[in-house]
């Protein structure tokens, strides 16, 4: 029970005491006969009746309403875990090995696409820069030679063979330079210079993984940073085999977790086609928009998935149902008397914004029952039971 609910219960029970509640406890027949042979046979039982007036109920914040049928959006609760949105996450590492010269960010920093994260020195990059520079110089020489030969050829001084050879050499050096430049860009992302190159952010987001230090030698397959856009997250939901026929892509899911007051709605966007061998479960995925970044990756959650919509003969608010002596009960009112009535529950779900449950048996439409703050009545019954102990 939440702190708010405990506070409401205390206020309600205090209100009942303030207005001078005198309730009569009933078990089977009306009244309670303190006969010797009853003392040991009945005093261990839980009381199932309490008498309260309209004034006392109002003072305690207890609401009574008639039972009725209605539409139930049937839901099932499935366990899940918040994870990074894989479509908005990037792992950043060097494309060529090198030594870390400087680190420009730290864990938790928010970065923009193109921001420099770290600077590395690399002998391999320096060599590739040298190759690019050499190719550029060869191109300069080949171009000058081609222009000279072309002028001589136009003046009928040199042969066509010399002209074609110079033209071909010029074309080949242009191709060689472009190839060297492409190789350098492939390794450095275009951020390199003669002394090294920079690791840059491929997307905007938060640094959620940081595995780098100044002076560290990084191999080309190292993962230095993980960047994630946390404005949306994935919920990886476990779907056991018995529920697989009921779960489908596109279904609405309400995700809730302890410590987060406001549940968030999403829809199932993925359902695995295979079942894990050990757990015998599949994985469904719900994408949650989370601009406030309340849903932290790693948080365990419950996904309330809508699987059906039915008409039920009797539907009550979920908060109307209490557990008493191992049974589900509702508190039915007859005059000023409230009776703990055992009921059999059916399908759980919601109607509009209210969580509801179907009553299969034990309650009929039109009967008055407590629909709000029923736990206060349960507490009063508990007090009555304690007061009759000897």
Topology:
Layout: H1 3-18, H2 36-42, E1 49-51, H3 54-60, E2 63-66, E3 68-84, E4 89-92, E5 98-103, E6 110-111, E7 116-121, H4 123-154, H5 160-188, E8 197-200, E9 205-210, E10 217-218, E11 225-228, E12 232-240, E13 252-257, E14 260-271, E15 281-289, E16 300-317, E17 322-324, E18 327-334, E19 337-342, E20 344-351, E21 354-361, E22 368-372, H6 374-387
Antiparallel strand pairs: 1-19, 2-22, 3-12, 3-16, 3-20, 4-11, 5-7, 5-10, 6-9, 7-8, 9-11, 12-15, 13-14, 13-16, 14-15, 16-21, 17-18, 18-19, 18-22, 20-21
Note down, in words, how this protein is organized.
α1 runs antiparallel to α3 (54-60) and α1 (3-18) crosses α6. The protein has 4 domains: 1-62 and 373-390, no CATH class; 63-85 and 229-325 and 337-368, Efflux pump adaptor protein, beta barrel domain (Elongation Factor Tu (Ef-tu), domain 3), CATH 2.40.30.170; 89-120 and 197-228, OB fold (Dihydrolipoamide Acetyltransferase, E2P); 123-195, Helix hairpin bin (Helix Hairpins, Orthogonal Bundle), CATH 1.10.287. With 390 residues, it is α+β, with helices and mostly antiparallel strands. The protein has helices at 3-18, 36-42, 54-60, 123-154, 160-188, 374-387, and strands spanning 49-51, 63-66, 68-84, 89-92, 98-103, 110-111, 116-121, 197-200, 205-210, 217-218, 225-228, 232-240, 252-257, 260-271, 281-289, 300-317, 322-324, 327-334, 337-342, 344-351, 354-361, 368-372. The chain is elongated. The longest helix is centred in the middle third of the chain and has 32 residues, at 123-154. The protein is built from 6 helices and 22 strands.
């Amino acid at each position: 029970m939440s702190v708010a609910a405990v506070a409401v219960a205390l206020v309600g029970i205090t209100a009942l005491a303030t207005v001078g509640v005198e309730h009569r406890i009933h078990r089977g027949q009306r009244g309670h006969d303190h006969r010797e042979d009853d003392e040991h046979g009945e005093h261990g039982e839980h009381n199932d009746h309490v008498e309260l007036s309209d004034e006392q109920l109002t003072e305690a914040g207890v609401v009574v309403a008639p039972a009725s049928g209605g539409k139930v959006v049937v839901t099932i609760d499935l366990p899940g875990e918040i994870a990074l949105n894989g479509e908005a996450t990037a792992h950043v590492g060097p494309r060529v090995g090198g030594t870390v010269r400087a680190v420009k960010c730290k864990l938790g920093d928010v970065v923009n696409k193109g921001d420099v994260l770290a600077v590395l020195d690399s002998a391999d990059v320096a060599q590739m820069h040298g190759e690019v520079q050499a190719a550029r110089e060869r191109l300069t020489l080949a171009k000058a030679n081609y222009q000279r030969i072309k002028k001589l050829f136009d003046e009928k001084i040199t042969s066509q063979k010399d002209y074609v050879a110079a033209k071909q050499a010029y074309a080949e050096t242009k191709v060689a330079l472009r190839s060297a430049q492409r190789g350098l860009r492939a390794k450095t992302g275009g951020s390199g210079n003669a002394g090294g190159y920079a690791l840059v952010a491929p997307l905007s987001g938060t640094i959620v993984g940081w595995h780098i230090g100044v002076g560290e030698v990084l191999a080309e397959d190292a993962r230095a940073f993980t960047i994630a856009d946390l404005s949306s997250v994935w919920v990886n939901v476990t779907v056991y085999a018995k529920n697989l026929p009921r779960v489908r892509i596109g279904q609405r899911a309400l995700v809730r977790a302890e410590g987060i007051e406001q549940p968030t709605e999403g829809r199932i966007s993925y359902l695995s086609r295979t079942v894990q061998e050990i757990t015998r479960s599949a994985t469904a995925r719900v994408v949650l928009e989370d601009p406030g970044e309340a849903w932290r990756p790693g948080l365990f959650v419950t996904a309330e998935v809508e699987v059906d919509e039915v008409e039920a003969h009797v539907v009550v608010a979920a908060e109307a149902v209490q557990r008493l002596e191992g049974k589900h009960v509702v508190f039915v009112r007859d005059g000023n008397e409230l009776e703990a009535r055992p009921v059999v529950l059916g399908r759980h779900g919601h109607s509009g914004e209210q969580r509801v449950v179907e009553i299969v048996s034990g309650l009929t439409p039109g009967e008055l029952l407590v629909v709000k703050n029923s736990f206060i009545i349960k507490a009063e019954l508990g007090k009555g039971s304690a007061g009759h102990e000897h």
